[in-house]
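Worked problem 6 (solution included).
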Amino acid sequence: MKTTPAAAPPSSAGPSRRGFKAYLWGGLAVAVVLVALYTAFMLWFSYSEGERAGVLQKFSKRGWICKTYEGELALYVVGGVAPQIWHFSARDATVLQPLRAAVGQQVRIHYEEHRGLPTDCFGETDYFATGFEVIGPPPSSTVEARPGPPAP
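Solution. The predicted structure is:
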């Protein structure tokens, strides 16, 4: 009579714990890489580019965790009408200091629009200033004084 060697008992009833952890960490690493590639793509390519002109009303550094540079440009259409406020962000170091000095003046801002960024750590708006030029004093300072009624 022949005897067969005894079969080894199974090591565990379900999938191994080490395999699950490997899949978990691997999936997490793939997700982080995909988010990083998406963010790099969104920062590299702009949705639109253009210029806006108005009075630079505010330029400040703000944020709780991610400090970003944010500005407000007052777009005047007609004198005496409330301006439309356009918000923008700035990331370029060559633009930051000169923009601070131009607050209160009429400027033309060159910008790029980057839609779909996954976080506000790059800027609170979709519009990023890439350059600017001062085009004059604010419109209210160019108004001439009108003569009053003649003195008695």
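Discussion: The chain has two domains: 16-45, 47-138.
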